[in-house]
Amino acid sequence: MQTTIESKPFEQIEADALIVLVFEGKRDDRFGAGELFDAGELTGKVQEFTLLHHPVGVAAARVLMAGAGKPEKFDSAELRRVAGAAVRYLKAKSVKRIALALDSGQAGAEYISAAFEGAILGDYEPDRYKTGDDKKAVDSFAVAAAPAPGLEAAARRGQILGEAQNFTRGLVNEPANRLTPAKMAEAARQMASEFHLECEVLETAQMEALGMGALLGVAQGSAEPPALIVVRYRPETPGGAAHLGLVGKGVTFDTGGISIKPADGMEKMKYDMAGGAAMLGAMRAIAQLRPPIAVTAFIPCVENMPGSRAQRPGDIVTAMSGKSIEVINTDAEGRLILADALTYARRQGCTHLVDAATLTGAIVVALAHLNIGLFANDEGLRDRVLVAAKAEGERMWAMPLEDDYKEYLKSAFADLANVGGRWGGAITAAIFLKEFAEDTPWVHLDIAGTAWLEDSKPYMAKGPSGVPVRTLVRLAMDWRG
């Protein structure tokens, strides 16, 4: 999709369709639409669309009156959704050239960025492997806004973020027969080469030498060898000594291992590497936006399979940190690979850690599919992440992490067990990870309920969502001190 900013009046923009925002409770008489308001056919409710053909006074062939909701609740996050929904609505009608008109109050940098991002996200379809000739796509998207400093940079940021999220979504959508740990490492290398990042991939022998028994224990049941992907960004002029480590779970397929999952819905388990994909997407954007902080991503990649060499319930493994772990349930594998990745990130000099993982079904029970569960051992880093998430419209909810929950992970045979029973499963999983973050400021994001859309939304296709790429990039970009 080609993207541009148009500084001329929106009436002069030639397009197949021009999107204009209308608000609830505000009668809009442009293009003769006042009668539609009076009749109740047009109300301005969120993502309500009315398409006008051959409107008078504009060069565009159509005008789409796009409902933006109550004016007092409208923000850049809502504009992102409206832009995405409008693009999807028009694309379904084979509209190729789209423009969006923004009033002066909606033309700030955050709004411009969100508009482009929403359009790019809305245009994405998870149909790579469909062979029909009925695929539809938008050729161009323009935003009409009065000239102002910073708008071109904002448009570029929106495009970079939208494309980074779609890169993440594309990886998550790959089936496990096409995206093995080795193929994910190859994708990381290609991305890093394109955007001038350093990339290193640790293989089995190197992980054995480092003592990564927790990660290797998960991988041993699969014919596909594991990989630990490391992608590094170094700023030209560092703004301080901070070094942000982004750790993402990369289970390219999760059968549950010997503790095998039910067949119903198992095909979705290709998404169990969404945390790792998000870290690669974030690094793709960070490489282009160039924040002042050093950032390194660590993505441990494995397949969790019930092969003849698979680890068993009751096995005891020793993590890189030296802690012994009793494997009670082999389907609690994500925390095992993250344990060694967190330790490695600390030893690589990371001063702050954020991990993202499709870790527990328990977080979906607690927060449904609306909020990411956030756990932290450090209030300062927690607040930084929450501020970044709010600015980017990615909803997160801070969960408890009191030391008392560690009682659930007691083992008679090892330093700790990998599961803590039925109660508070998302919390005990985070408590487990906390043992390996140790005293390094750390935030854990459980994205099991938010990384995949079970049904399509007006503004986004069914499947991978791309969270929390935007939050991670904002965290890095806004880092001070």
Helix count, DSSP H or I runs of 4 or more residues? 13
Task: Briefly note the structural class of the backbone.
Answer: alpha/beta
What distance lies between the first and last C-alpha atoms, to the nearest angstrom?
37 Å
Q: What name goes with the CATH superfamily of the largest domain?
A: Zn peptidases
Low-confidence segments: none
How much of the sequence lies in strands comes to 15-25%
Indicate the percent of residues in helices. Answer: 25-40%
CATH architectural designation of the largest domain: 3-Layer(aba) Sandwich
The largest sheet is: 9 strands, mixed
User: What is the number of E strands?
Assistant: 20
Domains counted in the coordinates: how many? 2
What value does the average pLDDT take? 97
Principal-axes shape call: elongated
Rg on CA atoms, Å: 24 Å
Write a brief caption for the model.
This protein has 481 residues and is α/β, with parallel strands linked by helices. The chain has 13 helices and 20 strands. Helix 2 packs parallel to helix 3, helix 3 packs parallel to helix 4 and helix 4 packs antiparallel against helix 8.
What does this structure look like?
With 481 residues, this protein is of the alpha/beta class. It has 2 domains: 144 residues, Leucine Aminopeptidase, subunit E, domain 1 (3-Layer(aba) Sandwich); 313 residues, Zn peptidases (Aminopeptidase, 3-Layer(aba) Sandwich). Helices cover 33% and strands 20% of the residues. The strands form 4 sheets. Strands 7, 8, 9, 10, 11, 14, 15, 16 and 18 form a 9-stranded mixed beta sheet that branches. The mean pLDDT is 97.
